[in-house]
TrEMBL record:
This is Guanylate kinase. Residues 12-190 form the Guanylate kinase-like domain. Signal peptide: none annotated. The lineage of its organism: Bacteria, Pseudomonadati, Pseudomonadota, Betaproteobacteria, Candidatus Profftella. InterPro entries: GK/Ca_channel_bsu, Guanylate_kin-like_dom, Guanylate_kinase, Guanylate_kinase_CS, P-loop_NTPase. It comes from Candidatus Profftella armatura. It comes from the Bacteria. CDD domains: GMPK (cd00071). Its main location: cytoplasm. The gene is gmk.
Length: 213
Protein backbone atom coordinates (compact mmCIF):
# COMPACT_ATOMS: atom_id res chain seq x y z
CA UNK A 1 0.00 0.00 0.00
CA UNK A 2 1.31 3.47 -0.92
CA UNK A 3 2.49 5.47 2.09
CA UNK A 4 0.32 8.65 2.07
CA UNK A 5 3.12 10.63 3.69
CA UNK A 6 5.60 9.93 0.89
CA UNK A 7 3.20 9.94 -2.04
CA UNK A 8 3.22 13.71 -2.62
CA UNK A 9 5.69 16.57 -2.87
CA UNK A 10 5.37 18.71 0.23
CA UNK A 11 5.45 22.41 -0.53
CA UNK A 12 5.01 23.81 2.95
CA UNK A 13 7.55 23.56 5.76
CA UNK A 14 6.85 21.78 9.03
CA UNK A 15 8.27 23.57 12.07
CA UNK A 16 8.36 21.76 15.41
CA UNK A 17 8.65 23.88 18.55
CA UNK A 18 9.30 22.18 21.89
CA UNK A 19 10.21 23.40 25.36
CA UNK A 20 9.71 22.55 29.03
CA UNK A 21 6.63 24.11 30.59
CA UNK A 22 7.30 27.71 31.61
CA UNK A 23 9.97 28.41 28.99
CA UNK A 24 7.66 30.84 27.17
CA UNK A 25 7.01 28.68 24.11
CA UNK A 26 3.31 29.49 23.75
CA UNK A 27 3.85 33.23 24.17
CA UNK A 28 6.50 33.19 21.44
CA UNK A 29 4.31 31.12 19.13
CA UNK A 30 1.28 33.37 19.61
CA UNK A 31 3.30 36.49 18.84
CA UNK A 32 4.85 34.85 15.76
CA UNK A 33 1.40 33.94 14.43
CA UNK A 34 0.24 37.55 14.80
CA UNK A 35 3.13 38.76 12.63
CA UNK A 36 3.48 35.92 10.10
CA UNK A 37 0.29 34.99 8.25
CA UNK A 38 2.05 32.42 6.05
CA UNK A 39 2.34 29.96 8.91
CA UNK A 40 -0.48 28.05 10.57
CA UNK A 41 -0.57 26.48 14.01
CA UNK A 42 -1.60 22.83 14.18
CA UNK A 43 -4.23 22.42 16.90
CA UNK A 44 -3.62 19.32 18.99
CA UNK A 45 -6.17 17.10 20.69
CA UNK A 46 -5.73 16.72 24.45
CA UNK A 47 -7.30 15.08 27.48
CA UNK A 48 -6.10 17.76 29.89
CA UNK A 49 -8.72 20.01 31.50
CA UNK A 50 -9.54 23.31 29.81
CA UNK A 51 -7.90 26.30 31.52
CA UNK A 52 -9.67 29.62 32.16
CA UNK A 53 -9.84 31.68 28.95
CA UNK A 54 -9.30 28.71 26.64
CA UNK A 55 -11.78 27.71 23.94
CA UNK A 56 -12.32 24.30 22.39
CA UNK A 57 -10.90 24.28 18.85
CA UNK A 58 -8.71 27.32 19.43
CA UNK A 59 -5.96 26.30 21.89
CA UNK A 60 -6.77 22.56 21.73
CA UNK A 61 -9.49 20.11 20.83
CA UNK A 62 -10.47 18.89 24.30
CA UNK A 63 -11.67 15.32 24.71
CA UNK A 64 -11.79 12.48 27.23
CA UNK A 65 -9.36 9.58 27.56
CA UNK A 66 -11.68 6.97 26.02
CA UNK A 67 -12.28 9.01 22.88
CA UNK A 68 -8.59 9.87 22.60
CA UNK A 69 -7.63 6.20 22.72
CA UNK A 70 -10.21 5.39 20.04
CA UNK A 71 -8.71 8.05 17.76
CA UNK A 72 -5.20 6.78 18.47
CA UNK A 73 -6.06 3.14 17.76
CA UNK A 74 -7.76 4.06 14.47
CA UNK A 75 -4.58 5.79 13.23
CA UNK A 76 -5.97 9.32 13.27
CA UNK A 77 -2.86 10.80 14.93
CA UNK A 78 0.40 11.65 13.20
CA UNK A 79 1.99 11.65 16.64
CA UNK A 80 0.79 11.30 20.20
CA UNK A 81 2.28 11.26 23.67
CA UNK A 82 1.43 11.24 27.35
CA UNK A 83 2.75 14.40 29.02
CA UNK A 84 2.35 15.22 32.72
CA UNK A 85 -0.45 12.65 33.03
CA UNK A 86 -2.44 13.92 30.05
CA UNK A 87 -2.57 12.72 26.42
CA UNK A 88 -1.81 14.94 23.42
CA UNK A 89 -2.07 14.09 19.73
CA UNK A 90 -1.66 15.71 16.30
CA UNK A 91 -4.28 14.79 13.70
CA UNK A 92 -2.83 13.25 10.54
CA UNK A 93 -4.82 14.51 7.58
CA UNK A 94 -5.06 18.26 8.40
CA UNK A 95 -1.24 18.43 8.41
CA UNK A 96 -0.96 16.61 5.08
CA UNK A 97 -3.67 18.83 3.54
CA UNK A 98 -2.02 22.07 4.66
CA UNK A 99 1.52 21.33 3.51
CA UNK A 100 0.18 20.13 0.15
CA UNK A 101 -1.50 23.55 -0.12
CA UNK A 102 1.85 25.35 0.33
CA UNK A 103 1.09 26.32 3.93
CA UNK A 104 3.84 26.26 6.55
CA UNK A 105 2.71 24.33 9.62
CA UNK A 106 3.89 24.88 13.16
CA UNK A 107 3.62 22.04 15.66
CA UNK A 108 3.81 23.04 19.31
CA UNK A 109 4.57 19.61 20.79
CA UNK A 110 6.86 17.89 23.30
CA UNK A 111 10.08 15.98 22.50
CA UNK A 112 8.26 12.62 22.28
CA UNK A 113 5.98 13.93 19.53
CA UNK A 114 8.88 15.70 17.83
CA UNK A 115 10.72 12.38 17.53
CA UNK A 116 7.69 10.74 15.89
CA UNK A 117 7.24 13.63 13.44
CA UNK A 118 10.91 13.52 12.44
CA UNK A 119 10.59 9.83 11.54
CA UNK A 120 7.71 10.57 9.19
CA UNK A 121 8.94 13.95 7.93
CA UNK A 122 12.78 13.96 8.11
CA UNK A 123 12.91 17.51 6.71
CA UNK A 124 10.79 18.94 9.52
CA UNK A 125 12.65 21.75 11.31
CA UNK A 126 13.06 21.30 15.07
CA UNK A 127 13.31 24.35 17.35
CA UNK A 128 13.83 24.01 21.11
CA UNK A 129 13.13 26.88 23.52
CA UNK A 130 15.39 26.97 26.58
CA UNK A 131 14.76 29.03 29.72
CA UNK A 132 17.74 31.08 30.95
CA UNK A 133 17.81 28.94 34.14
CA UNK A 134 15.76 26.39 36.07
CA UNK A 135 15.07 29.01 38.73
CA UNK A 136 13.48 31.31 36.15
CA UNK A 137 11.44 28.35 34.90
CA UNK A 138 10.08 27.69 38.39
CA UNK A 139 9.30 31.37 38.85
CA UNK A 140 7.34 31.56 35.59
CA UNK A 141 5.32 28.44 36.42
CA UNK A 142 4.29 29.76 39.83
CA UNK A 143 3.60 33.29 38.57
CA UNK A 144 1.26 32.30 35.76
CA UNK A 145 -1.00 30.55 38.30
CA UNK A 146 -2.64 28.20 35.80
CA UNK A 147 -1.94 24.89 37.52
CA UNK A 148 -2.19 23.37 40.98
CA UNK A 149 0.94 22.95 43.13
CA UNK A 150 1.27 19.20 42.44
CA UNK A 151 1.00 19.77 38.68
CA UNK A 152 3.67 22.48 38.81
CA UNK A 153 5.92 20.15 40.83
CA UNK A 154 5.58 17.44 38.15
CA UNK A 155 6.38 19.95 35.41
CA UNK A 156 9.53 21.09 37.23
CA UNK A 157 10.67 17.49 37.74
CA UNK A 158 10.12 16.76 34.03
CA UNK A 159 12.02 19.85 32.87
CA UNK A 160 15.49 18.31 33.17
CA UNK A 161 14.46 15.25 31.14
CA UNK A 162 12.86 17.41 28.45
CA UNK A 163 15.90 19.70 28.26
CA UNK A 164 18.20 16.67 27.87
CA UNK A 165 16.64 16.14 24.41
CA UNK A 166 17.44 19.67 23.22
CA UNK A 167 20.52 18.40 21.33
CA UNK A 168 18.21 16.46 18.98
CA UNK A 169 16.77 19.70 17.59
CA UNK A 170 18.09 21.82 14.71
CA UNK A 171 17.90 25.15 16.51
CA UNK A 172 18.06 26.37 20.11
CA UNK A 173 16.57 29.66 21.30
CA UNK A 174 17.36 30.83 24.83
CA UNK A 175 14.34 32.81 25.97
CA UNK A 176 16.08 35.27 28.27
CA UNK A 177 14.83 38.44 26.57
CA UNK A 178 11.50 37.98 24.80
CA UNK A 179 12.09 40.45 21.94
CA UNK A 180 15.41 38.82 21.08
CA UNK A 181 13.95 35.31 21.24
CA UNK A 182 11.08 36.34 18.94
CA UNK A 183 13.52 37.89 16.47
CA UNK A 184 15.53 34.65 16.41
CA UNK A 185 12.39 32.56 15.89
CA UNK A 186 11.32 34.71 12.94
CA UNK A 187 14.85 34.50 11.49
CA UNK A 188 14.76 30.69 11.61
CA UNK A 189 11.40 30.59 9.85
CA UNK A 190 12.50 33.00 7.11
CA UNK A 191 15.89 31.34 6.60
CA UNK A 192 14.28 27.96 5.96
CA UNK A 193 11.95 29.52 3.41
CA UNK A 194 15.06 30.61 1.49
CA UNK A 195 16.62 27.14 1.29
CA UNK A 196 17.24 25.92 -2.24
CA UNK A 197 14.96 22.89 -1.86
CA UNK A 198 12.03 25.01 -0.64
CA UNK A 199 12.46 27.70 -3.29
CA UNK A 200 12.87 25.12 -6.03
CA UNK A 201 9.65 23.31 -5.15
CA UNK A 202 7.70 26.57 -5.13
CA UNK A 203 9.31 28.22 -8.17
CA UNK A 204 9.69 25.31 -10.59
CA UNK A 205 9.15 27.26 -13.82
CA UNK A 206 11.61 29.99 -12.84
CA UNK A 207 14.28 27.49 -11.82
CA UNK A 208 13.81 25.60 -15.09
CA UNK A 209 14.33 28.82 -17.06
CA UNK A 210 17.60 29.37 -15.25
CA UNK A 211 18.50 25.69 -15.70
CA UNK A 212 19.28 25.24 -12.00
CA UNK A 213 17.01 22.30 -11.21
Amino acid sequence: MLNPIRSFKSFGNIFIISAPSGAGKSTLVNELLKKDHKIKLSISTTTRPMRPGEKNGREYYFTNIDNFKKLQKSGKFLEWAEVHGNFYGTSFFPIVREIKSNVDILLEIDFQGAKQIKKKFPNAIGIFILPPSLDSLKERLYKRGQDKYDVISRRILSANKEISYANKFDYIIINNKFSKALLQLKAIINANRCKFSYQAKNNISLFKKFNIL
